[in-house]
Amino acid sequence: MKRKKILSLILTVCLAVSIISMPAFGAETDSKGLEQAVVTMKQVVVIPDSYKDFTHSSSQYDIGDQKVTIWNLEWENSDDNNGYISASIDENGDVLTYNKYSPSESSNGLAKITKEDAQKSAEEFLNKVIPSYSNQMKKIDTNSNNPSSDQYNFTYQQFVDNTPVDFNRVEISVSKSTGEVTSYTGLNPGAKMSDYPATSGVINLNTAEKSYIDKLGVHLEYYSSYDYKEKIKCFSGLFS
Predict the structure, then answer these.
(1) pTM for the whole thing?
(2) CA-based angle 135:120:92, to the nearest 5?
């Protein structure tokens, strides 16, 4: 009986110690993650000394059966009403978003920065924020620039062997007044650049269409369409 009491006491103490130590370990991990996120952001942009009020939070993003931690950082400028710099960075050190706003730097007239110089700023930013594959990103035309806006907007898409990767795009805005990058939207949390197969041996469109017809097969059918004028139109087409 005495041995059972001693064993029970030991188990109780071990359980209590484990409960106490787990939050401490979690806090230490969170502290390192936060520190790394701040270091990463300061390697990309300069945080002026006037942006003294620093706040942060973390969240988790589900990717399949895994969770990726995201750090949300914000520095506020106590000398400039509502001025701030914010960013979100995942646990892999990838910058997901970046925003900078300063009322005193807002443009109220003609642009002081040319679009060409703004593009240079955007691409310099790209080289810092995604250095490992910025050389694969090419500017594409999305007709997103508004002449009345105080920002130049650029969209960059990944190209591998001159083949576009539709799901890897980033958006960058540059101030027409200062030439600084004011916003950036990058890849999804936890995204990793894939190994893409070679394009050698890829068949052309005509060959693909012929192969589809020959191997999968299609047949001719009649279909009808009602045009809301009490008329039914019939047409024929090839369907698989």
Answers:
(1) 0.72
(2) 45
